[in-house]
From TrEMBL, chains A, B:
Catalytic activity: prephenate + H(+) = 3-phenylpyruvate + CO2 + H2O
Keyword Lyase found: yes
Stored InterPro entries: ACT-like_dom_sf, ACT_dom, Chor_mutase/pphenate_deHydtase, Preph_deHydtase, Preph_deHydtase_CS
Entry keywords, A to Z: Amino-acid biosynthesis, Aromatic amino acid biosynthesis, Lyase, Phenylalanine biosynthesis
GO biological process: L-phenylalanine biosynthetic process
Residues in the signal sequence: none
Statement: the UniProt record of this protein carries the keyword Electron transport: no
Protein name: Prephenate dehydratase
Amino acid sequence: MAVSIAHLGPAGTNAEAAALLYANWLEKQNEQAILCPYPSIMQSLKAAALGQVDIAVVPVENSVEGSVTTTLDALWQFDNLRIQSALILPISHALLSRAATIEPIQTIYSHPQALAQCQGWLETHLPNAQLIPTNSTTEALQHLDDDPTIGAISSQRAASLYEVPILASPINDHPDNCTCFWVLSLQPSSGGDRTSLAFSVHDIPGALVKPLQVLAESNINLSRIESRPTKKSLGDYLFFIDLEADSMEPSVQAALAELTRCTETLKVFGSYCILPIPVPDTFT
Amino acid sequence: MAVSIAHLGPAGTNAEAAALLYANWLEKQNEQAILCPYPSIMQSLKAAALGQVDIAVVPVENSVEGSVTTTLDALWQFDNLRIQSALILPISHALLSRAATIEPIQTIYSHPQALAQCQGWLETHLPNAQLIPTNSTTEALQHLDDDPTIGAISSQRAASLYEVPILASPINDHPDNCTCFWVLSLQPSSGGDRTSLAFSVHDIPGALVKPLQVLAESNINLSRIESRPTKKSLGDYLFFIDLEADSMEPSVQAALAELTRCTETLKVFGSYCILPIPVPDTFT
């Protein structure tokens, strides 16, 4: 039976590109996959947490904009999900329009993250254009008709899918722009060189130092730390941490047991690897 | 001469409410103030950094959605700005519409953060409504006309300013929703019980532990830690930290000097207090 993969849709989003990459990778292991687009990241994760799909592929971090906070908050909530693997997608933004040149463009539609990632280019080339947010880069294309005053920022892949001409590409300010996605399911994680976890701490001075010391003393390196509000009051946080370590190793298990003692609630989302998947040029 | 205050506009935004509160507080100290709305947080901060206005009032953290990353990223960039004080504004969202009841509403416009903060209420009361993002809660009101199928989420203050009826209020999922704003200028900060700083670290294992140990050993409590990407590559971060300490104190100065030695670049944005400003009911 085909593996069902939930992702933020519709066709043409970067989340769909990541889900497709993972589906291609599964096919190489002789597993068939079917893509299931959802209107939000939250709904993709909920579908996987409730077992309505086998897998969810969701963005967790962009190299320019930072953490995708919706994903972190949802993972704390749906804590039966485990990270199976990660994959990294290069992100490239293009200006799409029916206009012949960029000069007539007065209005540009795109997802707020894409608009932010092209801010410098827009200030230089289209300083007077009005920027209008949309729910996804694909949704932005719905605003394009034959009006040459309208532009949209989306991927080259979306341009080709929806047959819209590209006026300029790439237009992102940071050339090494990329997004890390997590592959999540209800299965136990299979282990790997990275472990992701989150914890809350008791509200006492230095409460965060002790857990970090435990990790440092076990020679476990942190590759990321992110704080998120508990949503109860200002100043009350959860901490999301990525470790360069495999939770299947006895020494790491000992450190995690110690971590349980010096945190309030600890949730380990699994150990996994970054999949070495080559990304075709047509995907970015 | 009146003190000029930059804020995210137009009239009716929460940033304008915070700027107005600060202007009222200045008037009590016999200083006149004039409000200068800007189309983005970035442009408000830039105006203050270039000396085009005296002060910028910008949101830095919401109790539900977390850090306002634009503000942190811009402050690292415009590092001549210093925090003069902080103020806390309770946030209350209302559903505005020309409809007589909520039933006919099919489309709701608002800022993505406001839509996110009312997610639970919307799922219960208007599960099929289409949610459309706008650049500000005030901009959402521009989409309201006499069409009873359209709604907007904004503040009660905006409803009264623009004379739009309130259909439901408050509709935010977390009743204690509030946002902390910073008051920034080119003046040296005047001291207070909180200090905000940011630093980059060398890419070596445990690089973050050492700075946190320095603070713990000096008995300085962290009230917040936030990581932000340097935007160069995935896994390369800046850390923004709030301390419960006054950088004018000799012991804190000694800890900061030690911090300089174990970080790559350290920027101290000043010591300040949260202003005890009462918020009128009409402001939320």
